[in-house]
Write a structure and sequence with these properties.
heterodimer, A: 85 residues, alpha+beta, Mth169, Chain: A, 3-stranded antiparallel β-sheet, 2 helices, 33% helix, elongated, B: 232 residues, alpha/beta, Rossmann fold, 9-stranded mixed β-sheet, two-stranded antiparallel sheet, globular
Chain lengths: 85, 232
C-alpha cells in the first residue's frame, strides 16, 4: 500500500477571505504575532501497489485536473509506503 | 428552438429554467440527466444553478467530469448556445469552457437577494434585446460568486467585449458597494471568445415573470431566440 497526501493551498496572489478571517480571529484572541493565515485543504489517499514513481505519475494528473484548480491554487503531493499491518 | 436543461445531483434551478422556457416562452425543452451522453440534438443547453455534487472539493469541480460534459463541450465547439447560471457558471469555468474561476465571496457570506447589474455589451446573442448600459434587477443566491482571473485574462475579456454584465449600484455605477461578492472588476457574466457560451451568477430564470417582482431576466432568453431567428 502507498499513502499519498495532497496539500492544496490558495495561491499567494489570490485574496483568501477565509485565511483573512482566521487571521483576524487569532489576533482577536490575543496572539497578535500572527500576521497571515492561509486556509487550504489536505486530501489523504491510500493506493494499492508498491511502485511510488508510478503512483506519483498517476496522481500528478489527478492533482492538476481535479484536486486543485491551477488558476487559484497550488498543490504539494507527497507519497510514502504505508506501514504494513 | 430545442433546449436541453442538464440535471446534476444537487441541481435546484433546473425546474425554474425549464418552466420559463416551456411555459413562458413556449419552447421545446427536455431535461438531460448528467449520466446521459447526448443532448438529443438540442440547439441550446442550460447548465442550471444548484449545488452539484454538494459543491464538494470546489464548486463545479466534480460536475465537470460528468458523462454529459463531453456533449456540452462538443455543442459549444459547434457554436450552439450554452448558458451556465450560477453553479452552471462555476461548472463551465471548471470545465475550461470559460476562463477564470469563482471563489468564496469576499464577505464570506452567502448572499441571497436582488441586486443590480449593468448590460455592458448588447451586441451578443444573449443581450440583443437589452440596451447598452441598461440596469437590470436580478436575484443572486451564492456563496462562491467572486470571479477571479489573472490581469491579462481580465484585460482580454473587456477588450473582446466578453463581459456582458457587471455588478453596479442602482444608478448603474460599477462601485465596490454595488459588488455583492468581490468579483474582480465587478464581473457578473462573461462569454467565451466565440460568444456562444455565457456564464453568469445572477438568475435570469428567476426574474422572467411579472409576478416574481422582476422580469428583467426574460429578455436574455428572448435575445437568444431572436438571435436564432425564432419568433415567439
Amino acid at each position: 500500500m502507498i499513502r499519498a497526501q495532497v496539500i492544496v493551498r490558495p495561491r499567494k496572489s489570490i485574496f483568501d477571505p477565509q485565511g483573512d478571517a482566521v487571521c483576524r480571529a487569532i489576533q482577536h484572541l490575543g496572539v497578535s504575532a500572527v500576521k497571515h493565515a492561509h486556509v487550504g485543504k489536505c486530501i489523504e489517499l491510500e493506493l494499492e501497489g508498491e511502485d511510488i514513481d508510478q503512483a506519483r505519475a498517476q496522481l500528478e494528473t489527478i492533482c492538476q485536473d481535479l484536486l486543485s484548480n491551477p488558476v487559484i491554487e497550488d498543490y504539494v503531493l507527497t507519497l510514502q509506503p504505508a506501514d504494513k499491518k | 428552438m430545442r433546449w436541453a436543461v442538464i440535471q446534476f445531483p444537487g441541481s435546484n434551478c433546473d425546474q425554474d429554467a425549464f418552466h420559463v422556457l416551456k411555459n413562458v416562452l413556449g419552447q421545446e425543452v427536455s431535461y438531460v440527466w448528467h449520466k446521459d451522453t447526448s443532448l438529443n440534438g438540442a440547439d441550446a443547453v442550460v447548465v442550471p444553478g444548484g449545488f452539484s455534487y454538494g459543491d464538494y472539493l470546489r464548486c463545479g469541480a466534480i460536475a465537470r467530469f460528468s458523462p454529459i460534459m463531453p456533449a456540452v463541450k462538443e455543442a459549444a465547439a459547434q457554436g450552439k448556445t450554452v448558458l451556465g447560471i450560477c453553479n452552471g457558471f462555476q461548472i463551465l469555468c471548471e470545465a475550461g469552457l470559460l476562463p477564470g474561476v469563482l471563489v468564496r465571496n469576499t464577505s464570506l457570506h452567502f448572499r441571497c437577494e436582488t441586486i443590480t447589474v449593468r448590460v455592458e455589451n448588447p451586441a451578443s446573442r444573449f443581450t440583443s434585446e437589452y440596451l447598452a448600459g441598461q440596469v437590470l434587477r436580478l436575484p443572486i443566491a451564492h456563496g462562491e460568486g467572486h470571479y477571479v482571473a489573472d490581469e491579462a485574462t481580465l484585460d482580454a475579456l473587456f477588450q473582446n467585449k466578453q463581459v456582458l454584465f457587471s455588478y453596479c449600484d442602482a444608478q448603474g455605477r460599477t462601485t465596490p458597494e454595488g459588488n455583492p461578492n468581490g468579483s474582480q472588476r465587478n464581473i457578473a457574466g462573461i462569454t467565451n471568445r466565440a460568444g456562444n457560451v455565457l456564464g453568469l451568477m445572477p438568475h435570469p430564470e428567476r426574474a422572467s415573470e411579472k409576478i416574481l417582482g422582476s422580469y428583467d431576466g426574460l429578455a436574455l432568453f428572448q435575445s437568444i431566440l431572436s438571435s436564432a431567428k425564432v419568433t415567439i
